């Protein structure tokens, strides 16, 4: 996101990643996007849907992310960041219990 033209930089990374037949490079790019958004969302000391919205309202950031994420992934981020924040703060107990059970096995 620090490039002089983040969208062009992201487009170049996507083109390079597309050459990886295992699709691991594309998954890595998407993971990096997730990490970036989490850092942005937690920069104020807690998880904030407002921080995600602010990052997504920056045309440079939004353009770069649009090169990496699918339209559906972009909608999930831009459509309801407050729900994302709430889900992170209050994960369903069933999933947490299942995860603990899986780790114990």
Structure overview:
It is a single chain. The chain has helices at residues 6-17, 24-41, 49-57, 59-68, 71-79, 81-89, 93-104. The relative contact order is 0.12. The protein has one domain. It is mainly alpha-helical and 105 residues long. It has 7 helices and no strands. α2 (24-41) packs across α3 (49-57).
Topology:
Blueprint: H1 6-17, H2 24-41, H3 49-57, H4 59-68, H5 71-79, H6 81-89, H7 93-104
**What's the average pLDDT?**
77
Number of domains: 1
**Describe the biggest sheet?**
none
Overall shape: globular
First-to-last CA distance: 41 Å
- What class do helices, strands and sheet pairing give? mainly alpha
**Rg, Cα atoms, Å:** 16 Å
Low-confidence stretches: none
Q: Give a count of the beta strands, DSSP E runs of length 2 or more.
A: 0
Care to give the gist of this entry?
This protein has 105 residues and is mostly helical. It contains seven helices and no strands.
Labels describing this entry:
105 residues; globular; 75% helix; mainly alpha
